[in-house]
Amino acid sequence: MISAILLAAGQSERMNGENKLTKKIQDIPLIKHSVKNILSSSIDELIVVLGYQKEIIEKLIGKNKKMKIIFNKNFENGIASSIKTGLLHSSEKSEAFFICLGDMPLVNHNIYNQLIKSKDNKKIIVPTYKGQQGNPVLFDKSMKEKIMNISGDAGAKKILELNKDKILNLEINDQSITKGFDTQDNFNLLY
Q1: pTM for the whole structure
Q2: What element of type H or E holds 31?
Q3: Fewest Cβ atoms closer than 10 Å to its Cβ: which of 3, 113, 139, 170?
Q4: Among 77, 70, 40, 45, which residue's Cα sits nearest to residue 151?
Q5: For the chain, how many helices (H) and strands (E)?
Q6: Cβ proximity of 186 and 23 under 8 Å
Q7: 116 Cβ partners below 8 Å, 6+ apart?
Q8: What is the number of alpha carbons within 13 Å of residue 150 lying toward its C-beta?
Q9: How many CB atoms lie within 10 A of CB 176?
Q10: Residues near 165 by beta carbon (within 8 Å), at least 6 away in sequence
Q11: Residue 156 in 3-state DSSP?
Q12: Over the stretch 162-185, which tens digit does the pLDDT of each residue have?
């Protein structure tokens, strides 16, 4: 069983008051693209972690039997709290889990599936594009305890730094794994 934890709790601080997850790409809210791409892959469950403007985001996402929507009441404490909230709600049967960023709508289902196919090679599968590490990262369940000890706004980067010997850098010929939509300029580049 493969789980995906989608982090969608942030406050879009670099968007001048606008929630990036609600902005539209081809008339579809950014968060809906991210959810659709994950659900189209061969994952078994998707845990969406909401925080800031949770009611608005939840309405945009819709419902799916593979999906659980969770609220992180500590979302203001940074990304680590959302990762841990998602992990606490993931299935005990899960063999591996993705940590996915809500603001990466162009990562398609094929990328998720390529990472899943490589999961038995190492404990951490990191997609890379021309040598640059990207997202989503796939972790073996044996990494769960280490990730539960992270804090602040660093996400799982610290885990990657401390476990280089457990990482498979999987080259993906798709720049979307390095393209987050954090600023208005990222959206302007689309049009």
Answers
A1: 0.90
A2: helix 30-39
A3: 113
A4: 77
A5: 7, 10
A6: no
A7: 2, 41, 42, 43, 96, 138
A8: 24
A9: 18
A10: none
A11: coil
A12: 899 999 999 999 998 888 766 566
